[in-house]
Amino acid sequence: MLGSAAGGGFPQWNCGCPQCRAVRTGSRPCVPRSQSSIAVSADRKLWFLFNASPDIQSQIESFPDLHPDAGRAVPLQSVLLTDAELDHTLGLLLMREGRGLEVHATESVHETLTSGTGVLRTLEAYCPVKWQPVLPGAEVPLGDGSNGLSYRAFDVPTVKPMRFPGAATYGRVVGYRVTDCGSGRSLVYLPCVQQLTPDVLEELADCSALLVDGTCWQDDEMSRLGLASKTSRDMGHVPIAGPGGSLELLSPLSIDRKVYTHINNTNPVLIQDSPERRILDQHGIEVAADGLTIEI
Ligand SMILES: [Zn+2]
Ligand SMILES: [Zn+2]
Questions:
Q1: Which terminus of the chain has a smaller tally of CB atoms within 10 A, N or C?
Q2: Which alpha helices (DSSP H) does the chain contain, by range?
């Protein structure tokens, strides 16, 4: 777990909500978090990055397995994207000094990053970029297929308004199921999910570890704090609490490790002794922190 915070990080530069104040002053038990991303490996030699956050420089420095050798070769050549959000893709621009990047993204995400935000168009001016189209439902070997990992993306429907209209709605957001071919065990990375539909829940069945969207505790969290009028669902993220919330829908699933990530700085679960955090403890659901290592 390279980063476990939602866009803006924890604390967020322009935010003085109770959690951001607490982590700045140290008045409550909580730790800073960088913007969400994970690195996955079967052998601890070759690594695959899921989303590239704007905090990628410090994330790589804090994780020695990702450091380069004396010849600037890095154990990281591929980035898999769940969507085209800036907090999941701006890190691509910070990897421009490399020898080239392989970027796995759906056609919709590729279109937004090229014609919308321009992140990929800009990156391509600096280093070779090889786009690997992601087709939801297809099982694909990671790397050259010899490292023992495969992935399958699944579509995650969202009605969040598009900032850059034009791209297809299908494949705009995906989750990834990564399988260790040796053991057959798998990990699901799902940092953005607006609604846990029956189809999405089916994709989570039988996984060993689920790293899931924990952006907001309540749907109206931002307006309660007087910070914004948008709800959690408006921003494309199912809230944890309440009817149809992720706690209700994920609690019955038998999965070894259920871990909330992509946590917004307004979410009270960031405070380790909060009542909300205790509720998650009681349900056996973890709250990710940067540096968390999970073996499946
Ligand atoms: Zn995000
Ligand atoms: Zn805040």
A1: C
A2: 18-25, 56-61, 86-93, 107-111, 119-124, 198-204, 221-224, 246-250, 275-282
